[in-house]
Amino acid sequence: ESFMTSILKPPVPSYLDAVSLLQGHETMKYLHA
Q1: Side-chain half-sphere of 16: how many Cα atoms within 13 Å?
Q2: Which of 9, 29, 30, 31 has its CA 20 to 30 A from that of 23?
Q3: How many CA atoms, within 13 angstroms, populate the side-chain half-sphere of residue 10?
């Protein structure tokens, strides 16, 4: 159970961080284009 928790819990913030970073990167590309 703790294994599943360790699998499911961390990806949420890191996923959101990755999404926000990707969105920021896309925004920067549009601004520099």
Answers
A1: 4
A2: 9
A3: 5
What's the domain count of the chain? 1
The radius of gyration of the chain from alpha carbons, rounded to an integer in Å, stands at 15
What the block records as the tokens of 9 is 């819990």
Grade residue 24 by pLDDT with cuts at 50, 70 and 90: confident
Spatial distance between the Cα atoms of 25 and 19, rounded to a whole number of angstroms: 10
For residues 26 and 19, give the distance between their C-alpha atoms in angstroms, rounded to a whole number: 10
Residue whose structure tokens are 């928790």: 5
Angle at 19 between CA 18 and CA 22, to 5 degrees: 85
- Is the model's pTM score more than 0.70? no
